[in-house]
Amino acid sequence: MKKYGIYIGILVVGLFLGWLLFANSSNQEAEHNHNEVAEANQLWTCSMHPQIMQPEPGNCPICGMDLIPADTGAEGLSPDEIKLTENALALANIQTTIVGENSSKENTLTLSGKIVENEKSNTVQASYFSGRIEHLTINTTGETIRKGELLATIYSPELFAAQQELITASSLKETQQELYQSVRNKLKLWKLSDAQIDQIEASGKVEQHMPVYATVSGIVLEKMVAQGDYIKQGQPLLKIADLNTVWALFDVYENQVELVKKGQEITVTTNAYPQKEFTLKIDFIDPTLDPTTRTVKLRVIINNKEGLLKTGMFVKGNVKSDLGNNQKTLTLPASAVLWTGERSVVYVKTNPDKPFFEMREVTLGHQLDDHYQVIDGLTSGDEVVTHGTFTIDAAAQLQGKKSMMNKTGGKTMTGHEGHNGHTNETSKEISHEINWDNALEKKFISLVNAYTDLKDAFVTSDARVASTKSESFRNALDSMTATEREKLKGHWKMLYTASMEITLLNAIDNQRIHFQRISDMMINLSKGFSTFEQTLYIQYCPMANNNNGAYWLSKEAQIRNPYFGDKMLRCGEVKQTL
Fold it and tell me: Whole-model pTM above 0.70?
Protein backbone atom coordinates (compact mmCIF):
# COMPACT_ATOMS: atom_id res chain seq x y z
CA MET A 1 0.00 0.00 0.00
CA LYS A 2 2.87 2.33 0.85
CA LYS A 3 4.34 1.61 -2.58
CA TYR A 4 1.11 2.54 -4.40
CA GLY A 5 0.84 5.71 -2.34
CA ILE A 6 4.29 6.79 -3.57
CA TYR A 7 3.26 6.16 -7.20
CA ILE A 8 0.08 8.22 -6.86
CA GLY A 9 2.00 11.08 -5.27
CA ILE A 10 4.53 11.07 -8.12
CA LEU A 11 1.65 11.16 -10.68
CA VAL A 12 -0.05 14.11 -9.01
CA VAL A 13 3.21 16.07 -8.82
CA GLY A 14 3.89 15.29 -12.51
CA LEU A 15 0.45 16.48 -13.60
CA PHE A 16 0.85 19.71 -11.61
CA LEU A 17 4.29 20.45 -13.09
CA GLY A 18 2.97 19.73 -16.61
CA TRP A 19 0.07 22.11 -16.12
CA LEU A 20 2.42 24.87 -14.95
CA LEU A 21 4.77 24.31 -17.87
CA PHE A 22 2.28 24.09 -20.76
CA ALA A 23 -0.18 26.68 -19.44
CA ASN A 24 2.59 29.27 -19.26
CA SER A 25 3.73 28.38 -22.79
CA SER A 26 0.15 28.68 -24.10
CA ASN A 27 -0.29 32.08 -22.44
CA GLN A 28 3.00 33.28 -23.86
CA GLU A 29 1.99 32.12 -27.34
CA ALA A 30 -1.41 33.85 -27.06
CA GLU A 31 0.24 37.01 -25.77
CA HIS A 32 2.78 36.82 -28.59
CA ASN A 33 0.02 36.47 -31.22
CA HIS A 34 -1.90 39.33 -29.66
CA ASN A 35 1.17 41.53 -29.73
CA GLU A 36 1.79 40.66 -33.37
CA VAL A 37 -1.78 41.72 -34.29
CA ALA A 38 -1.45 44.91 -32.26
CA GLU A 39 1.87 45.71 -33.92
CA ALA A 40 0.36 45.07 -37.36
CA ASN A 41 -2.47 47.54 -36.66
CA GLN A 42 -0.29 50.10 -34.88
CA LEU A 43 0.00 53.54 -36.51
CA TRP A 44 2.74 56.04 -35.70
CA THR A 45 2.26 59.80 -35.39
CA CYS A 46 4.16 62.99 -34.47
CA SER A 47 3.57 64.68 -31.12
CA MET A 48 3.85 68.11 -32.80
CA HIS A 49 1.93 67.21 -35.99
CA PRO A 50 -0.81 64.70 -35.12
CA GLN A 51 -2.13 64.78 -38.70
CA ILE A 52 0.85 62.58 -39.65
CA MET A 53 -0.12 58.90 -39.65
CA GLN A 54 2.34 56.23 -40.79
CA PRO A 55 2.20 52.42 -40.55
CA GLU A 56 5.76 52.12 -39.14
CA PRO A 57 8.11 54.10 -36.87
CA GLY A 58 10.44 56.73 -38.28
CA ASN A 59 10.84 60.50 -38.45
CA CYS A 60 8.16 63.15 -38.94
CA PRO A 61 8.31 64.37 -42.57
CA ILE A 62 7.54 67.93 -41.38
CA CYS A 63 9.74 68.55 -38.33
CA GLY A 64 12.01 65.46 -38.27
CA MET A 65 11.05 64.37 -34.73
CA ASP A 66 10.77 60.67 -33.88
CA LEU A 67 7.30 59.28 -34.43
CA ILE A 68 5.43 57.86 -31.44
CA PRO A 69 2.70 55.18 -31.31
CA ALA A 70 -0.70 56.68 -32.16
CA ASP A 71 -3.60 56.38 -29.77
CA THR A 72 -5.17 52.96 -30.08
CA GLY A 73 -8.37 53.94 -28.36
CA ALA A 74 -10.36 53.27 -31.53
CA GLU A 75 -10.42 49.53 -30.92
CA GLY A 76 -13.43 47.75 -32.30
CA LEU A 77 -13.61 49.97 -35.38
CA SER A 78 -14.20 48.42 -38.78
CA PRO A 79 -11.65 49.23 -41.52
CA ASP A 80 -13.88 52.02 -42.91
CA GLU A 81 -14.86 53.61 -39.59
CA ILE A 82 -13.15 56.55 -37.91
CA LYS A 83 -13.33 57.83 -34.35
CA LEU A 84 -13.30 61.46 -33.26
CA THR A 85 -12.27 62.70 -29.86
CA GLU A 86 -14.76 64.53 -27.67
CA ASN A 87 -12.69 67.69 -28.13
CA ALA A 88 -12.84 67.40 -31.92
CA LEU A 89 -16.60 66.84 -31.77
CA ALA A 90 -17.07 69.99 -29.73
CA LEU A 91 -14.80 72.18 -31.86
CA ALA A 92 -16.43 71.11 -35.12
CA ASN A 93 -19.93 71.38 -33.62
CA ILE A 94 -20.88 68.01 -35.11
CA GLN A 95 -24.65 67.68 -35.55
CA THR A 96 -26.58 64.65 -36.71
CA THR A 97 -30.13 63.75 -37.65
CA ILE A 98 -32.05 60.50 -38.00
CA VAL A 99 -33.04 59.65 -41.57
CA GLY A 100 -36.72 58.87 -41.75
CA GLU A 101 -39.54 58.22 -44.16
CA ASN A 102 -41.81 61.13 -45.05
CA SER A 103 -44.97 61.34 -47.08
CA SER A 104 -44.10 62.20 -50.67
CA LYS A 105 -47.54 63.61 -51.39
CA GLU A 106 -46.66 67.27 -50.86
CA ASN A 107 -42.96 68.13 -51.14
CA THR A 108 -41.52 71.48 -52.21
CA LEU A 109 -39.39 71.61 -55.33
CA THR A 110 -37.11 74.67 -55.38
CA LEU A 111 -36.17 76.17 -58.76
CA SER A 112 -33.80 78.97 -59.74
CA GLY A 113 -34.67 81.45 -62.47
CA LYS A 114 -34.44 84.96 -63.86
CA ILE A 115 -36.80 87.79 -64.80
CA VAL A 116 -36.95 88.53 -68.55
CA GLU A 117 -39.20 90.70 -70.69
CA ASN A 118 -42.49 89.33 -71.92
CA GLU A 119 -41.70 88.48 -75.53
CA LYS A 120 -45.36 88.77 -76.49
CA SER A 121 -45.33 92.47 -75.58
CA ASN A 122 -42.03 93.30 -77.31
CA THR A 123 -42.27 95.73 -80.21
CA VAL A 124 -39.76 97.02 -82.73
CA GLN A 125 -40.38 100.65 -83.68
CA ALA A 126 -39.42 100.88 -87.35
CA SER A 127 -39.12 103.70 -89.86
CA TYR A 128 -41.80 103.61 -92.54
CA PHE A 129 -39.77 105.69 -94.99
CA SER A 130 -36.09 106.10 -95.85
CA GLY A 131 -34.04 109.17 -95.06
CA ARG A 132 -31.59 110.76 -92.64
CA ILE A 133 -32.23 111.09 -88.90
CA GLU A 134 -31.99 114.81 -88.16
CA HIS A 135 -32.91 114.60 -84.50
CA LEU A 136 -33.34 111.67 -82.09
CA THR A 137 -35.24 112.40 -78.88
CA ILE A 138 -34.44 109.03 -77.26
CA ASN A 139 -30.84 109.06 -76.07
CA THR A 140 -30.50 106.07 -73.72
CA THR A 141 -31.93 102.64 -73.17
CA GLY A 142 -34.24 102.20 -70.21
CA GLU A 143 -36.26 105.35 -71.02
CA THR A 144 -40.02 105.15 -70.69
CA ILE A 145 -42.01 106.28 -73.73
CA ARG A 146 -45.74 106.76 -74.31
CA LYS A 147 -47.77 106.02 -77.40
CA GLY A 148 -47.85 109.13 -79.64
CA GLU A 149 -44.63 110.55 -78.17
CA LEU A 150 -42.15 112.12 -80.61
CA LEU A 151 -39.20 109.80 -81.17
CA ALA A 152 -37.28 111.40 -84.05
CA THR A 153 -37.42 113.74 -87.01
CA ILE A 154 -36.25 112.47 -90.40
CA TYR A 155 -35.41 114.19 -93.68
CA SER A 156 -36.75 112.00 -96.50
CA PRO A 157 -36.41 113.01 -100.18
CA GLU A 158 -39.20 110.63 -101.24
CA LEU A 159 -41.53 111.99 -98.55
CA PHE A 160 -40.60 115.51 -99.63
CA ALA A 161 -41.71 114.65 -103.20
CA ALA A 162 -44.91 112.98 -101.96
CA GLN A 163 -45.91 116.15 -100.07
CA GLN A 164 -45.48 118.20 -103.24
CA GLU A 165 -47.72 115.70 -105.05
CA LEU A 166 -50.36 116.16 -102.34
CA ILE A 167 -50.33 119.95 -102.63
CA THR A 168 -50.67 119.67 -106.45
CA ALA A 169 -53.41 116.98 -106.25
CA SER A 170 -55.39 118.97 -103.67
CA SER A 171 -55.92 121.75 -106.22
CA LEU A 172 -57.35 119.14 -108.62
CA LYS A 173 -59.40 117.10 -106.17
CA GLU A 174 -62.70 118.31 -107.65
CA THR A 175 -61.81 116.96 -111.09
CA GLN A 176 -59.18 114.31 -110.21
CA GLN A 177 -60.67 112.74 -107.09
CA GLU A 178 -59.06 109.34 -107.64
CA LEU A 179 -55.59 110.89 -108.06
CA TYR A 180 -56.09 112.98 -104.92
CA GLN A 181 -57.12 109.91 -102.83
CA SER A 182 -54.23 107.89 -104.22
CA VAL A 183 -51.71 110.50 -103.03
CA ARG A 184 -53.31 110.69 -99.59
CA ASN A 185 -53.26 106.90 -99.26
CA LYS A 186 -49.55 106.83 -100.17
CA LEU A 187 -48.82 109.16 -97.25
CA LYS A 188 -50.98 107.06 -94.93
CA LEU A 189 -48.91 104.01 -95.84
CA TRP A 190 -45.91 105.93 -94.51
CA LYS A 191 -47.83 106.26 -91.22
CA LEU A 192 -48.70 109.94 -91.55
CA SER A 193 -51.96 110.64 -89.72
CA ASP A 194 -54.99 112.29 -91.30
CA ALA A 195 -54.28 115.33 -89.14
CA GLN A 196 -50.74 115.60 -90.51
CA ILE A 197 -51.92 115.22 -94.10
CA ASP A 198 -54.68 117.83 -93.61
CA GLN A 199 -52.16 120.24 -92.08
CA ILE A 200 -49.80 119.88 -95.11
CA GLU A 201 -52.73 120.35 -97.50
CA ALA A 202 -54.09 123.39 -95.65
CA SER A 203 -50.74 125.17 -95.32
CA GLY A 204 -49.59 124.40 -98.85
CA LYS A 205 -46.04 124.04 -97.47
CA VAL A 206 -43.77 121.01 -97.59
CA GLU A 207 -42.37 119.74 -94.28
CA GLN A 208 -38.65 119.09 -94.72
CA HIS A 209 -38.24 117.12 -91.45
CA MET A 210 -41.04 114.66 -90.82
CA PRO A 211 -41.71 113.57 -87.20
CA VAL A 212 -41.83 109.90 -86.17
CA TYR A 213 -44.17 109.10 -83.27
CA ALA A 214 -44.22 106.05 -80.97
CA THR A 215 -46.88 103.53 -81.94
CA VAL A 216 -46.75 101.77 -78.51
CA SER A 217 -45.93 102.56 -74.88
CA GLY A 218 -43.13 100.83 -73.00
CA ILE A 219 -39.45 100.78 -72.00
CA VAL A 220 -36.63 101.20 -74.53
CA LEU A 221 -34.63 97.98 -74.38
CA GLU A 222 -32.31 98.75 -77.26
CA LYS A 223 -31.46 101.82 -79.36
CA MET A 224 -30.59 100.61 -82.87
CA VAL A 225 -29.70 103.90 -84.58
CA ALA A 226 -27.93 107.17 -83.80
CA GLN A 227 -28.57 110.75 -84.78
CA GLY A 228 -27.29 111.44 -88.31
CA ASP A 229 -27.70 107.85 -89.52
CA TYR A 230 -29.17 107.16 -92.95
CA ILE A 231 -31.96 104.61 -92.68
CA LYS A 232 -33.99 102.54 -95.09
CA GLN A 233 -37.71 101.98 -95.17
CA GLY A 234 -38.65 99.37 -92.56
CA GLN A 235 -35.33 99.65 -90.68
CA PRO A 236 -35.67 99.17 -86.88
CA LEU A 237 -35.10 102.26 -84.77
CA LEU A 238 -35.87 101.10 -81.23
CA LYS A 239 -36.74 97.87 -79.41
CA ILE A 240 -39.53 98.59 -76.95
CA ALA A 241 -40.93 96.29 -74.25
CA ASP A 242 -44.08 96.67 -72.22
CA LEU A 243 -42.92 95.66 -68.72
CA ASN A 244 -46.38 95.82 -67.16
CA THR A 245 -46.08 92.04 -67.34
CA VAL A 246 -42.80 90.09 -67.23
CA TRP A 247 -41.76 86.48 -67.49
CA ALA A 248 -39.97 84.46 -64.84
CA LEU A 249 -37.98 81.73 -66.60
CA PHE A 250 -36.87 78.80 -64.43
CA ASP A 251 -34.46 75.93 -65.17
CA VAL A 252 -35.93 72.50 -64.51
CA TYR A 253 -33.39 69.69 -64.54
CA GLU A 254 -34.01 66.50 -66.45
CA ASN A 255 -34.74 64.43 -63.35
CA GLN A 256 -37.26 67.04 -62.11
CA VAL A 257 -39.41 67.32 -65.23
CA GLU A 258 -41.98 64.80 -64.03
CA LEU A 259 -42.63 66.92 -60.93
CA VAL A 260 -43.97 69.99 -62.76
CA LYS A 261 -47.09 70.48 -64.90
CA LYS A 262 -48.70 73.36 -66.74
CA GLY A 263 -51.22 75.11 -64.51
CA GLN A 264 -49.47 73.96 -61.32
CA GLU A 265 -49.18 76.57 -58.54
CA ILE A 266 -45.76 78.14 -57.95
CA THR A 267 -44.61 80.70 -55.36
CA VAL A 268 -42.02 83.17 -56.68
CA THR A 269 -39.69 85.24 -54.49
CA THR A 270 -36.78 87.59 -55.29
CA ASN A 271 -33.64 88.66 -53.47
CA ALA A 272 -34.70 92.28 -53.93
CA TYR A 273 -38.02 91.83 -52.10
CA PRO A 274 -37.57 88.78 -49.86
CA GLN A 275 -40.80 89.48 -47.94
CA LYS A 276 -42.94 89.70 -51.08
CA GLU A 277 -44.33 86.52 -52.64
CA PHE A 278 -46.06 86.04 -55.97
CA THR A 279 -48.39 83.04 -56.05
CA LEU A 280 -48.98 82.16 -59.71
CA LYS A 281 -49.66 79.35 -62.15
CA ILE A 282 -47.12 77.71 -64.45
CA ASP A 283 -47.93 79.13 -67.90
CA PHE A 284 -45.62 77.14 -70.16
CA ILE A 285 -43.10 74.27 -70.09
CA ASP A 286 -40.67 74.12 -73.00
CA PRO A 287 -41.17 70.90 -74.98
CA THR A 288 -37.45 70.73 -75.84
CA LEU A 289 -34.50 69.92 -73.57
CA ASP A 290 -31.31 71.98 -73.76
CA PRO A 291 -28.66 69.32 -74.56
CA THR A 292 -25.87 71.41 -73.00
CA THR A 293 -27.41 72.18 -69.61
CA ARG A 294 -29.83 69.23 -69.56
CA THR A 295 -32.60 71.59 -68.47
CA VAL A 296 -36.10 72.53 -69.60
CA LYS A 297 -37.40 76.09 -69.38
CA LEU A 298 -40.48 76.72 -67.24
CA ARG A 299 -42.33 80.02 -67.69
CA VAL A 300 -44.49 82.09 -65.36
CA ILE A 301 -46.21 85.41 -66.23
CA ILE A 302 -46.05 88.04 -63.45
CA ASN A 303 -48.08 91.25 -63.22
CA ASN A 304 -45.56 94.09 -62.90
CA LYS A 305 -47.66 97.27 -63.11
CA GLU A 306 -45.87 98.62 -60.01
CA GLY A 307 -42.54 98.21 -61.81
CA LEU A 308 -40.93 96.32 -58.93
CA LEU A 309 -39.40 93.56 -61.02
CA LYS A 310 -36.45 94.39 -63.27
CA THR A 311 -35.24 92.23 -66.13
CA GLY A 312 -32.19 90.22 -65.11
CA MET A 313 -33.25 89.81 -61.47
CA PHE A 314 -32.69 86.35 -59.97
CA VAL A 315 -35.81 84.67 -58.62
CA LYS A 316 -36.59 81.50 -56.72
CA GLY A 317 -39.68 79.37 -57.35
CA ASN A 318 -41.19 76.87 -54.92
CA VAL A 319 -43.50 74.27 -56.40
CA LYS A 320 -45.60 71.95 -54.28
CA SER A 321 -44.70 68.73 -56.00
CA ASP A 322 -47.11 65.80 -56.17
CA LEU A 323 -45.22 62.58 -56.89
CA GLY A 324 -48.41 60.86 -57.91
CA ASN A 325 -49.18 58.82 -54.81
CA ASN A 326 -49.02 59.04 -51.05
CA GLN A 327 -46.25 56.50 -50.62
CA LYS A 328 -43.50 56.94 -48.05
CA THR A 329 -40.09 58.01 -49.30
CA LEU A 330 -36.73 58.26 -47.55
CA THR A 331 -35.42 61.84 -47.40
CA LEU A 332 -32.05 63.30 -46.42
CA PRO A 333 -31.14 66.90 -45.45
CA ALA A 334 -29.22 68.57 -48.28
CA SER A 335 -26.57 69.79 -45.81
CA ALA A 336 -25.52 66.18 -45.17
CA VAL A 337 -24.42 65.53 -48.75
CA LEU A 338 -20.86 65.96 -50.02
CA TRP A 339 -20.45 66.03 -53.80
CA THR A 340 -17.34 64.90 -55.61
CA GLY A 341 -17.61 64.48 -59.35
CA GLU A 342 -20.37 61.99 -60.01
CA ARG A 343 -20.48 60.62 -56.45
CA SER A 344 -22.67 61.75 -53.56
CA VAL A 345 -21.42 60.77 -50.09
CA VAL A 346 -22.62 61.17 -46.51
CA TYR A 347 -21.20 60.29 -43.11
CA VAL A 348 -23.20 57.95 -40.88
CA LYS A 349 -22.78 57.66 -37.12
CA THR A 350 -22.42 53.91 -36.74
CA ASN A 351 -22.64 53.70 -32.95
CA PRO A 352 -25.30 55.75 -31.12
CA ASP A 353 -23.19 55.87 -27.93
CA LYS A 354 -19.72 56.44 -29.41
CA PRO A 355 -18.26 58.99 -31.87
CA PHE A 356 -17.77 56.38 -34.63
CA PHE A 357 -18.45 57.50 -38.22
CA GLU A 358 -18.37 55.86 -41.63
CA MET A 359 -18.63 57.25 -45.16
CA ARG A 360 -21.45 55.97 -47.36
CA GLU A 361 -22.08 56.55 -51.05
CA VAL A 362 -25.73 57.34 -51.73
CA THR A 363 -27.90 57.52 -54.81
CA LEU A 364 -30.18 60.54 -54.69
CA GLY A 365 -33.45 61.33 -56.42
CA HIS A 366 -35.27 64.66 -56.63
CA GLN A 367 -34.31 67.65 -54.53
CA LEU A 368 -37.38 68.77 -52.61
CA ASP A 369 -36.88 72.04 -50.75
CA ASP A 370 -33.84 71.46 -48.48
CA HIS A 371 -34.00 67.65 -48.69
CA TYR A 372 -33.10 64.97 -51.22
CA GLN A 373 -34.92 61.75 -51.92
CA VAL A 374 -32.70 58.76 -51.12
CA ILE A 375 -32.90 55.96 -53.65
CA ASP A 376 -30.08 53.81 -52.34
CA GLY A 377 -27.33 53.79 -49.70
CA LEU A 378 -29.30 54.50 -46.50
CA THR A 379 -32.12 52.95 -44.53
CA SER A 380 -34.70 54.47 -42.25
CA GLY A 381 -33.20 55.09 -38.81
CA ASP A 382 -29.64 55.77 -39.97
CA GLU A 383 -28.05 58.69 -38.14
CA VAL A 384 -26.28 61.02 -40.61
CA VAL A 385 -24.03 64.01 -40.01
CA THR A 386 -25.65 67.29 -41.10
CA HIS A 387 -23.14 69.78 -39.69
CA GLY A 388 -19.37 69.39 -39.44
CA THR A 389 -19.23 66.92 -42.33
CA PHE A 390 -16.05 68.42 -43.75
CA THR A 391 -14.26 68.05 -40.43
CA ILE A 392 -15.08 64.34 -40.31
CA ASP A 393 -14.05 63.92 -43.94
CA ALA A 394 -10.72 65.63 -43.24
CA ALA A 395 -10.15 63.26 -40.30
CA ALA A 396 -10.96 60.29 -42.54
CA GLN A 397 -8.43 61.47 -45.12
CA LEU A 398 -5.73 61.93 -42.48
CA GLN A 399 -6.34 58.42 -41.13
CA GLY A 400 -6.25 56.85 -44.58
CA LYS A 401 -9.92 55.86 -44.49
CA LYS A 402 -12.49 56.11 -47.26
CA SER A 403 -13.38 59.77 -47.89
CA MET A 404 -14.92 62.03 -50.50
CA MET A 405 -11.53 62.38 -52.22
CA ASN A 406 -10.35 58.81 -51.61
CA LYS A 407 -12.93 56.29 -52.74
CA THR A 408 -11.09 53.18 -51.58
CA GLY A 409 -9.07 54.39 -48.58
CA GLY A 410 -5.69 52.96 -47.67
CA LYS A 411 -3.64 56.15 -48.03
CA THR A 412 -1.87 57.83 -45.13
CA MET A 413 -0.48 61.32 -44.88
CA THR A 414 3.26 61.30 -45.46
CA GLY A 415 3.90 64.99 -45.87
CA HIS A 416 4.70 64.59 -49.59
CA GLU A 417 1.15 64.15 -50.76
CA GLY A 418 -1.36 66.78 -51.69
CA HIS A 419 -3.95 68.76 -49.86
CA ASN A 420 -5.65 67.05 -46.90
CA GLY A 421 -3.83 63.79 -47.47
CA HIS A 422 -5.06 62.88 -50.92
CA THR A 423 -2.67 63.00 -53.84
CA ASN A 424 -2.46 66.00 -56.10
CA GLU A 425 -3.39 63.71 -59.00
CA THR A 426 -6.65 62.79 -57.25
CA SER A 427 -7.46 66.44 -56.62
CA LYS A 428 -6.80 67.34 -60.23
CA GLU A 429 -8.93 64.47 -61.42
CA ILE A 430 -11.87 65.69 -59.34
CA SER A 431 -11.43 69.30 -60.46
CA HIS A 432 -11.02 68.37 -64.11
CA GLU A 433 -14.51 66.82 -64.11
CA ILE A 434 -15.85 70.39 -64.20
CA ASN A 435 -16.53 71.79 -67.66
CA TRP A 436 -14.68 75.14 -67.52
CA ASP A 437 -16.11 77.33 -70.27
CA ASN A 438 -15.22 81.03 -70.72
CA ALA A 439 -18.26 82.33 -68.83
CA LEU A 440 -17.67 80.05 -65.85
CA GLU A 441 -13.95 80.90 -65.78
CA LYS A 442 -14.73 84.64 -65.55
CA LYS A 443 -17.17 84.02 -62.69
CA PHE A 444 -14.65 81.82 -60.89
CA ILE A 445 -11.91 84.47 -61.14
CA SER A 446 -14.32 86.91 -59.46
CA LEU A 447 -14.98 84.26 -56.82
CA VAL A 448 -11.24 83.82 -56.19
CA ASN A 449 -10.87 87.58 -55.74
CA ALA A 450 -13.75 87.61 -53.23
CA TYR A 451 -12.16 84.63 -51.44
CA THR A 452 -8.78 86.36 -51.03
CA ASP A 453 -10.56 89.42 -49.62
CA LEU A 454 -12.24 87.09 -47.12
CA LYS A 455 -8.87 85.53 -46.29
CA ASP A 456 -7.41 88.98 -45.61
CA ALA A 457 -10.27 89.68 -43.18
CA PHE A 458 -9.27 86.60 -41.17
CA VAL A 459 -5.65 87.77 -41.19
CA THR A 460 -6.84 90.86 -39.29
CA SER A 461 -8.85 88.63 -36.90
CA ASP A 462 -11.86 90.96 -37.28
CA ALA A 463 -15.10 88.94 -37.05
CA ARG A 464 -17.22 91.86 -38.27
CA VAL A 465 -15.11 92.42 -41.38
CA ALA A 466 -15.04 88.67 -42.02
CA SER A 467 -18.85 88.64 -41.90
CA THR A 468 -19.01 91.50 -44.43
CA LYS A 469 -16.45 89.93 -46.78
CA SER A 470 -18.28 86.61 -46.54
CA GLU A 471 -21.40 88.37 -47.80
CA SER A 472 -19.38 89.73 -50.75
CA PHE A 473 -18.20 86.16 -51.39
CA ARG A 474 -21.85 85.04 -51.58
CA ASN A 475 -22.62 87.91 -53.96
CA ALA A 476 -19.98 86.48 -56.31
CA LEU A 477 -21.68 83.09 -55.97
CA ASP A 478 -25.11 84.64 -56.61
CA SER A 479 -23.86 86.16 -59.87
CA MET A 480 -23.53 82.65 -61.32
CA THR A 481 -26.38 81.41 -63.47
CA ALA A 482 -28.24 78.21 -62.63
CA THR A 483 -26.30 76.43 -65.38
CA GLU A 484 -22.94 77.62 -64.02
CA ARG A 485 -23.88 76.54 -60.50
CA GLU A 486 -24.75 73.07 -61.77
CA LYS A 487 -21.37 72.79 -63.55
CA LEU A 488 -19.61 73.18 -60.18
CA LYS A 489 -21.14 69.80 -59.21
CA GLY A 490 -22.39 70.62 -55.72
CA HIS A 491 -19.47 72.87 -54.73
CA TRP A 492 -21.63 75.97 -55.23
CA LYS A 493 -24.16 75.02 -52.57
CA MET A 494 -21.49 73.92 -50.07
CA LEU A 495 -19.55 77.17 -50.58
CA TYR A 496 -22.73 79.19 -50.13
CA THR A 497 -23.68 77.31 -46.96
CA ALA A 498 -20.23 77.69 -45.38
CA SER A 499 -20.19 81.40 -46.26
CA MET A 500 -23.60 81.90 -44.67
CA GLU A 501 -22.33 80.25 -41.47
CA ILE A 502 -19.47 82.79 -41.33
CA THR A 503 -21.92 85.68 -41.67
CA LEU A 504 -24.21 84.33 -38.95
CA LEU A 505 -21.44 83.62 -36.41
CA ASN A 506 -19.94 86.30 -34.16
CA ALA A 507 -16.84 84.49 -32.81
CA ILE A 508 -13.77 84.58 -35.06
CA ASP A 509 -12.66 81.06 -34.02
CA ASN A 510 -16.00 79.58 -35.07
CA GLN A 511 -15.90 81.54 -38.32
CA ARG A 512 -12.47 80.12 -39.10
CA ILE A 513 -13.82 76.55 -39.00
CA HIS A 514 -16.09 77.37 -41.94
CA PHE A 515 -13.36 79.39 -43.66
CA GLN A 516 -11.29 76.19 -43.69
CA ARG A 517 -14.17 74.38 -45.45
CA ILE A 518 -14.31 77.15 -48.07
CA SER A 519 -10.52 77.02 -48.50
CA ASP A 520 -10.57 73.25 -49.03
CA MET A 521 -13.15 73.54 -51.81
CA MET A 522 -11.56 76.59 -53.45
CA ILE A 523 -8.18 74.80 -53.58
CA ASN A 524 -9.69 71.71 -55.17
CA LEU A 525 -11.54 73.83 -57.74
CA SER A 526 -8.45 75.93 -58.44
CA LYS A 527 -6.28 72.89 -59.16
CA GLY A 528 -8.46 72.03 -62.15
CA PHE A 529 -8.65 75.62 -63.41
CA SER A 530 -6.78 76.64 -66.56
CA THR A 531 -5.66 80.26 -66.26
CA PHE A 532 -5.53 82.81 -63.43
CA GLU A 533 -5.03 86.55 -63.67
CA GLN A 534 -1.98 86.16 -61.43
CA THR A 535 -0.06 83.47 -59.54
CA LEU A 536 -1.85 81.78 -56.64
CA TYR A 537 -0.12 80.04 -53.74
CA ILE A 538 -1.47 77.09 -51.74
CA GLN A 539 -0.17 77.70 -48.21
CA TYR A 540 -0.25 75.48 -45.16
CA CYS A 541 -0.05 75.90 -41.37
CA PRO A 542 0.58 72.68 -39.37
CA MET A 543 -0.64 74.26 -36.13
CA ALA A 544 -4.08 75.31 -37.39
CA ASN A 545 -7.24 73.23 -37.02
CA ASN A 546 -6.32 72.08 -33.51
CA ASN A 547 -2.82 70.98 -34.65
CA ASN A 548 -4.31 68.96 -37.52
CA GLY A 549 -3.12 71.49 -40.10
CA ALA A 550 -5.06 73.64 -42.56
CA TYR A 551 -4.53 75.11 -46.03
CA TRP A 552 -5.53 78.37 -47.72
CA LEU A 553 -5.09 80.23 -51.01
CA SER A 554 -3.12 83.46 -51.31
CA LYS A 555 -2.09 85.88 -54.03
CA GLU A 556 1.19 86.58 -52.20
CA ALA A 557 4.02 84.15 -51.56
CA GLN A 558 4.61 85.80 -48.17
CA ILE A 559 2.84 83.94 -45.35
CA ARG A 560 0.03 85.86 -43.65
CA ASN A 561 -1.82 83.25 -41.60
CA PRO A 562 -5.64 83.60 -41.64
CA TYR A 563 -6.13 80.95 -38.93
CA PHE A 564 -4.13 82.81 -36.23
CA GLY A 565 -3.71 86.39 -37.47
CA ASP A 566 -1.26 88.42 -35.36
CA LYS A 567 -0.84 85.56 -32.89
CA MET A 568 1.21 83.55 -35.41
CA LEU A 569 1.11 85.69 -38.56
CA ARG A 570 4.15 84.07 -40.23
CA CYS A 571 3.39 80.46 -39.28
CA GLY A 572 3.16 78.34 -42.42
CA GLU A 573 4.78 77.58 -45.76
CA VAL A 574 3.98 77.54 -49.48
CA LYS A 575 3.02 74.00 -50.53
CA GLN A 576 2.17 74.54 -54.19
CA THR A 577 2.12 77.31 -56.80
CA LEU A 578 -0.72 77.66 -59.30
Answer: no
